[in-house]
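Side project, low priority. Logging it here so it doesn't get lost.
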Amino acid sequence: GEAGQAKLLAAPPEKMVDEQIVTALHVAMRHQLDTPQALRASTRAGELTADYLLANRIPRPVQALLRVLPATLAARLLVLAIGRHAWTFAGSGQFAALFLPHALGKGAPRLRFSITGCLVCRGAEASQPACAYYAATFERLFRKLVHRGANVVESRCEACGDSSCEFDIRW
């Protein structure tokens, strides 16, 4: 199709793909779908990515341990793992995680992820955050491994003119 990657439909990649391919796929999706459809497709892709990680990349004993630990401790361990493997989803972008003080109040974010130089919204201009893919991936992982009520909201987005894409995580 428009991204020049139709071959991926016939034979999904078995190894990491160049970040330019990822960006091209997201650009093509935004051009071919209206905003609500693109956000739904991006969300579903993020959920499927998290399911793949749970099935193939995060060892079962580690998953079992995270599920029985207190949520804050499980989140800290998961964040360490995400940070070590950030190159796999942020590419040349920069990933950071910040635990926020509980003094912010009930319902306040407990954790914030940021991606500067985001592959998903690179070159995009939007009036609302455009990185539903990352938000859905993070949310599914946190719901399965940290707390079933975890919620991830993209609060800032480079596509909206912000300096980075930021994801607030609550549980």
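Brief comment: The two ends are 39 Å apart (CA to CA).
Revisit when time allows.
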